[in-house]
Specification:
OB fold (Dihydrolipoamide Acetyltransferase, E2P), alpha+beta, 2 helices, five-stranded mixed β-barrel
Length: 129
């Protein structure tokens, strides 16, 4: 009986940690949507656990500021939506909408993406009943 109780407590601890990690509320300023803004791709990290990419976006003075965008899906989910390792290549024109990180406005949680004037899906289609 004690063994089962320990397994239950252990499992509940991981559930809470997973919710904290995937909740996002402690990381992102959901009420401060930025964009759409356009910049130039500098790299793509098509790796687990989450795909991310970087781009240079000009600031108000015209200086290029490097930003990193996080996509909440794994490469497996994005592949099902048509993504590949070369979906974003250095030099591509990117237009993004994102919510900034609470402590670093150059890091964002991606909300929309257009690559070379072609929209690229960042959310899987809704499942039909």
């Amino acid at each position: 009986m004690t063994k089962y109780l320990l397994v239950l407590i252990y499992g509940l601890g991981f559930t809470s940690a997973g919710q904290a990690h995937h909740g996002g509320g402690s990381y992102w300023t959901e009420d401060q949507l930025v964009g759409p803004v356009t910049g130039t791709a500098t790299g793509l990290s098509f790796n687990f656990p989450h795909v991310s990419f970087s781009l240079d976006i000009p600031d108000e003075q015209g200086n290029l500021v490097n930003h990193t965008m996080s996509i909440r899906w794994t490469p497996t989910v994005l592949r099902r939506m048509g993504w590949r390792r070369n979906s974003i290549e250095p030099g591509d024109k990117l237009t993004v909408t994102f919510v900034p990180h609470k402590q670093d406005p150059t890091v964002g949680a991606l909300r929309s993406l257009v690559v070379n004037d072609v929209p690229l899906a960042i959310e899987p289609p809704a499942e039909e009943d």
